[in-house]
Every structure is written in C-alpha cells, then in structure tokens.
Amino acid sequence: MRVMGVDPGLTRCGLSIVDGGLGRQVTALDVDVVRTPADMELAERLLCVSDAAEHWMDTHQPEAVAIERVFSQHNVRTAMGTAQAGGVIALAAARRGIPVAFHTPSQVKAAVTGNGSADKAQVTAMVTRILGLQAAPKPADAADALALAICHCWRAPMLDRMAKARAMAADQQRRYAERLAQQRKAVTR
C-alpha cells in the first residue's frame, strides 16, 4: 500500500510517501517540507500547500492519504492554520478519489515508538530506524510526515477489518430484525 503522510501546517507542511509491504515492512520513497512565508496572505499560503500536495498525489499516486488530526493546541491561530492546511489536502485527495484517514498525534507516536507520549526526538529516532535511513529526516515536520505514513500502513489493515466486522454485525442485526418482524406478522394473522 502506498501512503502519503501529511504533517499539516502553514509555515511548514511535511509530506511523505511510504510503501507498505508484508507485515510491518515499510519503505520511504520521498519526503519534503513545503514552506510558506508568514507574511503571505492566508489564501495564497493555502494555495501553495494545496498545489504541492496535488503535485505529490499526481506524481506518486498514493492509495491513501494519512493526515495528522488537529486535536488541541494552546495557540488557536496555529491550530486553525494547521486544520486549514489539512483540510485543503483532504479536499485534494477526495477530488482524486483517494481515501483520507486522520490519525491523532498519540496514535502516531504509539504506532512508531510504542509510547503515545513519546517526544519528537524519540519519534524521529524510530522513524529513522524503521525505515533504515542513513540520517534522521529534518526538520521534525518531515519525520512526522513519515511517521504518519508508517502509522497508516500499520493501522489500515486493522481499521479495515474493524469496519468490515461492524458492517457484518449491522447486516446480521438488520436480518435478525426482519426475521422478528416476519414472525410477529405470522403470529398476529
């Protein structure tokens, strides 16, 4: 499975492409950070982020896009910019029919380090080790984008199985309700 990992942001937006193989085998194909100047108009910054993400999607043809879910930050302005950047990337993926998954920072940290409270240095070290990179990806946004793609490669099969199980359970519940309704009709006749 080819996954595009995105660490959204307006000042720095990390983008990565990872191929997931059998088991937990993952290979990094590309990673970069899109930068926009703080003095640029918001709409122009979002356009730059969107253009870069669209180019990556068209070039690398990912099967899924994994974006960090904005949870809560002390700086509301930063949180808004992060959410907006993630939104334009999700929109670009949706226009191409590419499924989008949002993962929380703690889910990503737990997936790559085993600790949902790991710090950035631990995440970067594990990403470097998991991917067998010669040097740690820099800046941290690049490492975070790779971590998101790895997380999705490893979590997607489980999430898919859970979705199928929920759908199967809902179908069985629907059929059971139909049988009950038919039995009730038969009794009242």
Number of helices in the DSSP assignment: 5
Low-confidence runs: none
Please name the fourth-level CATH homologous superfamily.
Ribonuclease H-like superfamily/Ribonuclease H
Instruction: Bin the strand percentage.
Output: 15-25%
Main beta sheet: strand number and arrangement?
A: 5 strands, mixed
Evaluate the radius of gyration. 20 Å
**Spatial strand order of the main sheet:** 3-2-1-4-5
Structural class: alpha/beta
State the share of residues found in helices, binned by percent. Answer: 55-70%
Got a strand count? Answer: 5
Distance between the termini: 55 Å
CATH architecture designation: 2-Layer Sandwich
User: What general form does the structure show?
Assistant: globular
Per CATH, the class reads Alpha Beta
| Total tally of structural domains | 1
One letter per element, helices H and strands E, the order comes to EEEHEHEHHH
EC number: 3.1.21.10
Organism: Nocardia terpenica
GO cellular component, one term: Holliday junction resolvase complex
Subcellular location: Cytoplasm
